[in-house]
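Lab channel / #folding
Pinned by the channel admin:
"Please post every new chain as: sequence first, then the structure tokens as a reply. Keep commentary short and put observations after the output so the thread stays searchable."

First post following the new format, from NK:
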Amino acid sequence: MTRTKATTRGTTRTRGTTRTDSGLSRCEWAASERALAYHDVEWGVPVHDDRVLFEFLTLEGAQAGLSWETILKKRENYREAFDGFDPARVARYDEARAGELLSNPGIVRNKLKVASAIRNAGAFLELQVEFGSFDAYLWPFVGGEPQKNAWTSLSEIPARTDESDALSRDLKKRGFNFVGSTICYAFMQAVGMVNDHTVDCFRYAELG
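Reply from TO:
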């Protein structure tokens, strides 16, 4: 897990986790209010909805070179700007729409990242046709079930794995951009393909 560490009021550090005023131990990276909410509700929960998978694939690509906190702050703006992350609509964006996105201060205004999101939407649709759904394509990379790790500290969590390498190679072959192995592994963590909560985090046991 390579999320940027942060501190917030009412937290103390223990090995690998942050303990808040609620008494719950959480992964160390979940320290800001936004990160806490995201960590407690979404991160690591298995996702099988194609729209949500496209959302996370787009957001993880947008994060490249930035902090996840930055993306969380802009997430609602992204949802509005990208039509709720409907890949069929995003794939139809033309140059004029891309220009509108690049003038939108609510998202990351990077020409390559915006172009990538549009390009990836088209490739995403092609995978849906080939496999029936993006979900059906994606989950076999981990054997169809979440991989449960047993990390005791943030420093133990890898930035990439053999599985993320394989996913990255295949997505690139199919025309996707901003899908390097590190981005793919962050995506896999987010959508629950791996359980990378540290073992003393309360969510580790909850997710099984």
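NK: The first strand starts at residue 11 and ends at 14.
TO: also worth noting, The domain at 50-195 is CATH 1.10.340.30 (Endonuclease III; domain 1).
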